[in-house]
Amino acid sequence: MSLIYDPPQDCKLVGAMRAIHGVRDSITIIHARPGCHCGMILLKALGSNQNDVRVISSGFRAHDTVYGAEKRLSAAIQLSHEYFEPGLIAALNCSAPAIMGDDIEGVASSMEEKIPAALMTMETGGYEGPAWIGYEEALAKLTDYMIPVERPSADRINLIGIKTDDINAGGDLTEIRRILKDHGIEVNTVLADASFDEIKNSPDASLNVVLGGDGLECAKVMRERFDIPYIITPYPFGVKKTTEFVELVANRLGRKVDSELIEREVKLVKDGIERVCMFLQGIYDMPVAVIGESGRAFDLAEFLSDELGLNVCFLAISSKNHLTSNRIEDGNGHFGDVFIEPDRFEMNDLIKGAGVSMIFGSTFEKHLSSEIGAPLIRVSYPVIDEVSITDAPYAGFRGTLHLCETIINAVITQNIEEIEE
Amino acid sequence: MADNESGSRSSFLTSFVKAYGTLPLHGITAIPGKISGALMLTDAIEDAVPLIHGPVGCAFQRKVNPFKPHSPFYTTPCTNLNDTDVVYGGEEKLEQGIKETYQRYHPNLIMVITTCPSDLIGDDVEAVTRDVSSEVGCDVVYSTGDFVGRSKPVGYQDAFYAITDQMLCNGDGNGDPERNEGSVNIVTFPIHGAGIKVAEMASVLGDMEIGVNKVCFDHTRVEDLYDLPKADLNITDFPMQWAKLMDERSDVGCYEILGWGRYSEEKDPELLSPYGIGGSSRVFREIAEMMGKDGKAEEVIRRRRKEAEERLSKVRKDLKGVKIAALGGLHGVGLNLFKDAGVDVSVLICRTQIMESRLTEEAIKEIVDMNMNLAEICGFDPEALVNPTIEEEIKVIKRSGTDLVIAPSTSAHLYNREGVRTFDPTSFMIHHQRVGFECPIELCQMLKDALKTPQRRTPLLSMLEHDSQMHNMTPHWAKLSLAFNLLRSDAIGDRVKVDADIGGAEGGFDR
Hints:
CATH class of the largest domain in chain A: Alpha Beta
CATH superfamily of the largest domain in chain A: Nitrogenase molybdenum iron protein domain
Largest interface: A-B, 66 and 67 residues
Number of helices of chain A: 19
Number of domains of chain B: 3
Distance between the termini of chain B: 37 Å
Mean pLDDT of chain B: 89
Distance between the termini of chain A: 36 Å
Largest sheet of chain B: 5 strands, parallel
Structural class of chain B: alpha/beta
CATH superfamily of the largest domain in chain B: Nitrogenase molybdenum iron protein domain
Structural class of chain A: alpha/beta
Helix content of chain A: 40-55%
Low-confidence stretches of chain A: none
Strand order of the largest sheet of chain A: 11-10-9-12-13
Strand content of chain A: 15-25%
Mean pLDDT of chain A: 96
Strand content of chain B: 5-15%
Number of domains of chain A: 3
CATH topology of the largest domain in chain B: Rossmann fold
Strand order of the largest sheet of chain B: 10-9-8-11-12
CATH topology of the largest domain in chain A: Rossmann fold
CATH architecture of the largest domain in chain A: 3-Layer(aba) Sandwich
Helix content of chain B: 40-55%
Oligomer: heterodimer
């Protein structure tokens, strides 16, 4: 096994930032040399929420590595409050100040009285772990601000594991809310796509629903602290997973699934696929590669295989979660070998040799897709070369049709002359 | 047919690059770190591979290229430093990493780029690269960001300096190669598309009997870099530390197209205007003088200039009397180009907000004065507006009968909705502005096209709120920008004066 590693996943900082940025009235301070801050700004600004980038730098400079930069951090906290009046200010301590030993917790404590916003700190040195650890830890830390409720509302759930910067996340969430609402289930708080007040109000729910296993630590802490049970559901890609999702949630709440409603939804999917049935038949058995984060990629791969009949001959999990090893075993043969956080060089070599006709991945698979002449469907983080502003989901019943549409179009819009070149 | 194809591809490329050109980075809301700059240089050398000596984030996140956000750095292997390495050091990993990088990619150059963790734990990167380089079949160079002081962009400057110091002019004989007498290197920033933008310059130099030894970066390989010390002169677009080092060690002179250093001594604003007929003539003359070709050069400049001026006089006919509102600043379209185009600069807009926390008040005043001085030299008498609101601008623009505003696409819609046409300076600067006599002719054509654009009274972008001061941004982004600049500078008080440093100060106030 090689020592050098061209990573498919980011560091703890990015995971933490993705979780905290989901708090709509938060500011994330990157206490780091300029590169880390610039990277965060770019990941956000190249996405589909350019109006909602809430990441600032503490202004850490080279000479601060000698004398420390705690004063800069306090200035950044003060200024964040003055400029943005956020509900939550999170300071993320990155490699340079973390090694130097900047006491960011001390800085935050000393400012608590004069800053009305909640102040959260986290150690996110690049060497401290991968992105998913940062995501889990940051979501779990949000439980510190939650307010216990004596009698939580019935039939209200929290959704855990939504990442607002995933492609079509907004549309997915709208679709999931719609499906749940149709079954009389209300979403209390989305972790994390919520205001800070909504985060605080998270305990007013009778069930935590962990999508694809992302945010499991948060669910466990909430069970300990607030006695809220949790269930783990698939990320609802396709008809089967969406139905399973509804059934799991409804059953756990002691509600009956409205089978007529599900039938109506399935009928709409059927009507849609009927309109393009010949193309769907045409792509049946197409060999594809799926690269993505654990919370979504397993379910996507299973949908592609089980429902669309594609041949998922390669599955790479770019970023794990606590359930990754279980999910490999649960694959039911829908995907071939599974590679966990593989080295990109080796992964690309394997994909090149796998003879795939389509890649489901992130922007960073663009070059590979171009090299092997296989269209790239952007479904995995980070997508920084495609936008999504129409709320068209990939998840849920409606998302099934949108995915079908995207996949078919990616095939038939190709120019045969370029393919033959 | 081929020309049409190439034309439409080039048109798409312009639009593609422009689609990302509105991101307010580079000193406005963020500054790329040294790793990005070093990666940009490494990426521009076709047979080089980076090795990032750091944790995964330093490799993954840096795939996003702040200099060309449309082109990620796809290959960024790292040594995957973890918390144990931070305690015990990462030198062994680096040594092994260099060997594996060679075995895996078979490059001709490995650029080791250090990161915050490896810098702070004190890994002896120099010793490791020195020791291991004999065990791999390629050059190994390391860049820490510490070689070039405050020269910007630090990572780019540092990596290029490292190549010169450790590889090209390292005292083992490489720096004293057989000379390509009477030749120059033309080395431009890799985002500027060197091949296209220096073709005319190379042609003029050729007429002067000055050969072009190498043009970088244009499919540049390591063997091309080794050829750099063969030339007599390095021509760079702005001050480069590597060129100064090559001058010291290998006697290859250096000439900077943008003469920041000379400006700080002579305070002649024309030194910062290398474009247009006059500016280009001066640049060619100065290069010729350094190459001992003064006599030949005068004849060539006169002839090429005459040819261009004849064509220019025809193409600029329709522009006579056209009034322009131009942007002042450090990096805009040169005022002397407007002079060549025969238009009148009726309004000169200077925006200083972004620089206010970075530059001293004197420096900002000097830049404003420098622009006014240059306008006067060019024969313009514009009304100067410093940090106007959009309403104030529109009022003056309408009152003065201005026909065209030089406005980037971040703010063009604000003028368009008022019935004022605009010209995008960013695309012109990236794809057209260069030393040479053809550039003003192209500008004339582009200005004429802009004057023919339909009135756009209802752009959707006008639905958005804009900041009253920095009206190329929404209020939210303006706050991000203010916060960034304030936090970065205020606590330290390291504002710079107008000297060589300012040339490297990101942003300018041209956007």
